[in-house]
Amino acid sequence: MAVIVANWKMNKVLSEAIEFTKALKSMSIKNGRKVIIAPPFVYLNQIVNELKGTEISVSAQNMFYEDKGAYTGEISPLQLIDIGVEYVIIGHSERRNIFKEDDELISKKLKSAISHNLTPIFCIGEKIEERRSGKTFEIIKKQLTDGLKLINADEIYKIIFAYEPVWAIGTGVNATPEQAGEVHQWIKAYLEKKYLNLTGESVKILYGGSVTAENAKSLMSIDGVDGLLVGGASLKIDSFEKIINF
Ligand code: 13P
């Protein structure tokens, strides 16, 4: 099953969000595609309701790890599951870099999401200077090791991983099939060696970073790429339809 996620980030007003969702609902989607929409928090409730009775799921773009309390401006896992959200993006590079989220916080969020039966979409990826200085795998390994610190071996398969090289996000420069394939295969080998040979489960790893209607098919043909996490090209129904039905 190819997992295709639309991360709208901080885009759309309500009328646009509803118009897109109605168009998505009436679209014919090829078999073997799992479609997930991640709208801004304020529209989650309406979009969940709009998509009731369909196979399309809804994801939050972030959450806090506590269930409730004095955390002004935060949203809890309890609140997300209460309105029917099934997935949550954790550790997006924009959260890491703009809002200074570190691996320790990310690990708490992953743990909390799993314990509430929310499926985390856990993002990792290196910056351009890290790639240029040959540190890609060092960075990926640290993000995995520290991010998964609180996660038990039997919980690893409950996470959807997403490799999003920071230099490819919103730049129009996607990773080449060689670059994406190398990192996806490395992550799978690392996780399988460290955890999954204990459980026999396998993990899904999405690719994100300048995915378009034009490059979706070739990215999906890479060994180790199980789906796509789409930003800019998920905002227009035409390009997102082509990506879903690549
Ligand atoms: P773009 O598709 O706009 O490069 O964004 C990727 C991304 O950050 C998805 O989470």
Task: Characterise this structure.
The structure is a single chain. This protein is an alpha/beta fold and 246 residues long. The chain has one domain: Alpha-Beta Barrel (TIM Barrel). It is built from ten helices and eight strands. An eight-stranded parallel beta barrel has the order 1-2-3-4-5-6-7-8, surrounded by five helices. β7 (204-208), α9 and β8 (227-230) form a beta-alpha-beta unit. α7 (136-147) runs parallel beside α8. The longest helix has 18 residues, at 177-194. It is globular. The mean pLDDT is 96. Bound molecules: 1,3-dihydroxyacetonephosphate. 1,3-dihydroxyacetonephosphate (13P) binds next to β8.
What is the secondary structure topology, with strand pairs?
Elements (H helix, E strand, L loop, with lengths): L1 E6 L6 H12 L7 E6 L5 H7 L6 E4 L16 H6 L4 E4 L2 H5 L5 H13 L3 E6 L3 H5 L3 H12 L12 E4 L13 H18 L9 E5 L7 H5 L6 E4 L6 H8 L2
Parallel strand pairs: 1-2, 1-8, 2-3, 3-4, 4-5, 5-6, 6-7, 7-8
The site of 1,3-dihydroxyacetonephosphate has 14 residues, from strand 8.
